[in-house]
Design a protein that fits this description.
70% helix, 316 residues, single chain, two-stranded antiparallel ribbon, membrane, mainly alpha
Length: 316
Amino acid sequence: MLALRLIARRYSGNKLWLDDLFQILGAIVMIPLLAIAIMVSIKGLGNHIYDIDFKNSYTDVFKYYYLTEVIYHVHSTLIKLCMLFLYLRIFPDRLTKGLAYGGIAFLVLSQVIVTFFTIFQCNPVQAVYNFNIKQKQCLSITNIAISGTAFNIAAELVIFIIPIPVVSSLQISKSKKIGVLFLFSIGLITIGVACIRAPTFTKLNDHSDTTRSLAPTFIWSCAELTASNVIVTLPAVSKFLHVGFSRVTSSVQSWARTTQKTAVGTHIIGPVTRRLQGRGKTLPHRLDTMASFESLGPVTLTTVVSSTGGRDEKRR
């Protein structure tokens, strides 16, 4: 999706702006997340605790999960900043800019707080994944996760509301307004994924089968980040996609018209049809049928002379 965004920017002739930069940073952050997803599955996340190599894999599963939590908040912040800076670029009015700046301030402040508590949820930090440390103080990971999700949903709602006043005032048809609002409201899908992810937090404090109970939260976190990467690209490339689909549709229609014009229909039947229609007549059914068969090749008119009753008759 990032490549599609950059291609669209290249063909439109516009320079990269801050919204593009934040999506590039988000894509870079996704690289270690993909590596962690592979490693944590190898170590046994999703398996029952008694099915893994407890001595070598148990600590690693928690370490990778801890890193995923931090990456989740960083990536989520970058993607939302991408959308808010897109508003600053395309909407010139003061109201929208003011709302966008307010959204940026709320987003940065809330995510800095949540990310801070995620990183330093235990004292010492190593106690998050190293259960051999007995002298430790830890916050509830469930409460941190719920707070982070609440802030994310609030930020998504702000991003959804910001363009509504501007789009409502546009001098375009109601159907086009709905289309534009749908384009910007597609981020509500991310809210849906976040709401599906939220109930999995209840199992985060379940230490009876942790490698199994952590898996749903991990999977839905990755799903939410992937969906946000796709969704944030669509408003920026919508015009590029519209032009591309228009050209494809035009080419298909042109090809369809061309295939309907056969050799017989073009060179013989066409002129005959135009002459007959000019005289208020219609093309005979047999000739009309023949025009649809390109495999017939050129039509040759042959004159046959026969004698009947002493008279010569010509038939074609």
